[in-house]
Amino acid sequence: MILYLHGFRSSPHSFKARLIEQRLQALGRGGDFSCPQLPASPSTAMVKAFGLAAQCAPNDLTLIGSSLGGYYATYLAEQLGCRAVVLNPAIKPPRDLEKYVGVTTAYHSNEPFEFKREYIDELQKLAVSRITRPERYFLIAATGDEVLDWQEMVAHYPGARQHVIQGSDHGISEFADYVDEVLAFCGIGTGHAS
Length: 194
Hints:
By secondary structure, the chain is of the alpha/beta class. It has 7 helices and 8 strands.
């Protein structure tokens, strides 16, 4: 099973989530994908993600997390012992999201939601200072990420499989080029070389 954790202000309508789901459907594996809408509260988001992840054995689960979802995926992978693919992951969201405390809007709906000050403390409790078993991780980082520092990402996942894209952007606009490589890491054969 693949559990996709979207980023801050994002949703299951994320284009990367939709690309993965479409690719899995084309492979006849659509039932192996879940991408829940995560609440703004990090602790509530983790309760929801844990509940979904607990439905599978760690060896049968891969987390894919984008941006803040990558931070969540790293925390969960350390707790559960499963694989994780992290796409331009947030490394220090308590620092980076401080400026969003207050009311902001979701990307895909423009629906307002409140990011409360206490959520910064909740994020701090999910921090992973050092990953264990780096072979469980696959990092895709773009040097052109306009939101987060790709060098922080590379440094946070030492020994992990890493694909550093020269250029690109925070959303990894050309993610379609990497879907099969991601799925191969998840243990799903696509018929294409990775």
